[in-house]
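This section describes the prediction task in plain terms. A model, or a person checking by hand, is given the sequence of a single protein chain and must write out its three-dimensional structure as a string of tokens. No templates, partner chains or ligands are provided. The sample shown here is typical of the held-out split.
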Amino acid sequence: MKNVTDSFVSLGHWPSAGSFGFNTDILATNLINLSVVLGVLVFFGKGVLSDLLDNRKQRILNTIRNSEELRGGAIEQLEKARTRLRKVEMEADQFRVNGYSEIERERLNFINSTSNTLKQLENYKNETINFEQQRAINQVRQRVFQQALQGALGTLSSCLNNELHLRTIRANIGMLGAITD
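The expected answer:
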């Protein structure tokens, strides 16, 4: 046991032929030992390494397939979105054109309606002015007639005496009687 410990402690020292130890001197290492170790690693590790590489290859291929599928789906969705965008843009343009047409039509309708309303108000104003003029003229006529009547009655009252008054009444009654016969 002491030899094993000594061989680990003094790394640069070769142990005796009957003991076990590690040779850390790379230049002094036997090529046969290295080739045996490498051969054993390749022989036993080849299957494990091959399986690891195959699994890694499969995962990469699956990832690539999934990525291609996702890419295809994304491209399809992008095309659908572009188509919808074009459709919405066309509808927006149509709404815009229709909106401008509708606004212009409403503006013209509003102008025409306002013009008609102004004409009606002008007609109502003229009718009101004519009505008020007629009313004023009738009031003046009525007043002139009343004043003329009052003046005539005043003149008749001052000029007529009872006898003349009775004679005038009889003459008028006679004329009415002649007309009715």
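For orientation: Residues 51 and 57 are 10 Å apart (CA to CA).
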